[in-house]
Specification:
By secondary structure, the protein is an alpha+beta fold. The protein has 2 domains: 110 residues, Methane Monooxygenase Hydroxylase, Chain G, domain 1, CATH 1.20.58.410; 236 residues, Alpha-Beta Plaits (2-Layer Sandwich). It is 43% helix and 21% strand. The strands form 2 sheets. An 8-stranded mixed β-sheet has the order 2-3-1-5-4-9-10-11. The chain has a 3-stranded antiparallel β-sheet with strand order 6-7-8, with helices on one face. Strand 4 and strand 5 form a beta hairpin. The longest helix has 37 residues. The two termini are 41 Å apart. About 2% of the residues have low confidence.
Length: 357
């Protein structure tokens, strides 16, 4: 049993280092504090504050419970080893194997130490030039990400979705809530290229299509990203539904332009003008932060118009014909089963990016 004790001691030592580095004890104290606050009936007098605290509590609980459970398991197994005989050696070895795998999985959170990595994410998918073919490709990407979110247990809320006339989508915008959602998804930001035999071409010719995926951190508070009101132009107009039909009779659609950078965000959905404005501002903050990261700017005031990567950065090729391959242009990571990738199996691409970041 001595060899098993050494393995468990080594695991416990590494576990405690990471546990301390991630400030799990401080987060446990914050959980207790938030639990008391959300239990107070008066908190719902301010719905926005109550909702924010409930969301913070839920995310923290999801994070710390996994670490607390593993710590308990390690301590319990240590006590079991001390009183066990050789007949339990195989069983205990199996338990240590499981804990080592669990720790390796939990340790991945160390990759998310960027300033905004712990934020939720806005994912915007836009079809490129090419009509129906490109819109169908954008729709395929939308399904891929929704399947990935589902597998991660994340919540994805549609903020806007404009369907193509024949197939796919012109644009789809989702707010994604999950542990380190932006940290996980930021690697998907860029242009995605598809090569396949076109199902929309009578001659079944090979076709190349493009779609832009934008991934932005969700920044709800004005204090995190300060934007001068004089730098904004806000326009309201009638929402346009599928086929150009009116969604409603009020000027609920909102377009916000950040004048210094000429950054435009428009949201049209079946919401009130106020709700659309709040979401548009949320997305604008995320866009400006993304530009800051790309331009290595210290402040919003230092941003330069027209220097975001945008459509210029092709990050991944999905080839369905004449061979099958999905390859990332930045890391050279590849998968030979495009169907599985398009069904949400993108973890390998993301982890390869994080390893090289």
């Amino acid at each position: 049993m001595q060899d098993l004790q050494k393995r468990l001691d080594a695991l416990r030592g590494e576990f405690l280092k990471v546990y301390k580095k991630l400030c799990i004890e401080d987060k446990l104290m914050r959980v207790s504090e938030l639990e008391k606050q959300v239990a107070e009936p008066d908190i719902w007098k301010n719905v926005e504050e109550a909702t924010a605290k409930n969301q913070e509590l839920s995310k923290l609980q999801d994070e710390v419970q996994k670490w607390e459970l593993l710590r308990t398991q390690i301590n319990d197994l240590n006590e079991l080893i001390e009183i066990s005989g050789e007949d339990l050696k195989k069983e205990i070895s199996g338990q240590i194997d499981g804990m080592e795998n669990q720790f390796a999985e939990l340790k991945k959170v160390l990759k998310f130490q960027g300033r905004y990595d712990n934020k939720d994410a806005i994912v915007r998918i836009t079809s490129g030039a090419g009509g129906t073919e490109a819109m169908d490709w954008a729709g395929m990407l939308e399904r891929m990400y929704l399947r990935f979110f589902e597998k991660k247990g994340w919540k994805a809320t549609s903020l806007e979705r404009i369907e193509g006339e024949e197939a796919g989508i012109k644009t789809a915008v989702y707010e994604v809530v999950g542990s380190n959602a932006y940290g996980w998804l930021k690697s998907e930001h860029g242009v995605h290229r598809l090569v396949r035999l076109s199902p929309f071409n009578a001659n079944n010719l090979r076709q190349t299509s493009f779609a832009l995926v934008e991934v932005l951190p969700v920044i709800k508070a004005d204090t995190e990203v300060q934007i001068d009101d004089k730098d904004l132009r806000i326009d309201v107009y009638h929402s346009g539904g599928h086929g150009g039909q009116s969604v409603n009779t009020t000027n609920s659609a909102v377009r916000i332009t950040h004048l210094p950078t000429n950054t435009v965000v428009a949201i049209q959905n079946e919401r009130s003008q106020l709700q659309n404005k709040e979401k548009a501002m949320e997305i604008l903050r995320g866009k400006l932060v993304q530009m800051q990261l790309e331009q290595h700017a210290e402040t919003i005031g230092e941003l330069r118009a027209g220097e975001s990567a945008g459509w210029g950065q092709q990050i991944r090729n999905y080839v369905l014909q004449p061979y099958k391959l999905v390859k990332d242009t930045r890391t050279s990571y590849e998968e030979t089963d495009p169907e599985a990738v398009l069904d949400g199996k993108i973890d390998g691409f993301i982890e390869a990016y994080l390893e090289n970041a």
